[in-house]
């Protein structure tokens, strides 16, 4: 997972699709864009969570939540 921006002011998150299709997913964290996601970094567990779910409308069409570093498929 890659974060772009300064700590506490990240504006983009990117990662490989968890279905292993090889596609790179980029999600906006900017509050002024739609759609946008919220990223929570759990420092004590060294994990992250994303809200809302990620639902790819092209390619593999995966739909999942990232919660405490784990993929939860929809």
From TrEMBL:
InterPro entries: DUF6527 (IPR045384). Pfam families: BubE. This is DUF6527 family protein. It comes from Hymenobacter bucti.
């Amino acid at each position: 997972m890659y974060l772009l921006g300064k700590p506490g002011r990240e504006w983009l998150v990117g990662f490989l699709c968890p279905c292993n299709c090889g596609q790179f997913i980029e999600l906006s964290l900017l509050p002024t864009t739609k759609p946008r996601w919220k990223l929570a970094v759990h420092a004590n567990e060294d994990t992250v969570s994303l809200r809302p779910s990620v639902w790819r409308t092209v390619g593999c069409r995966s739909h999942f939540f990232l919660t405490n570093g784990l993929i939860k498929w929809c």
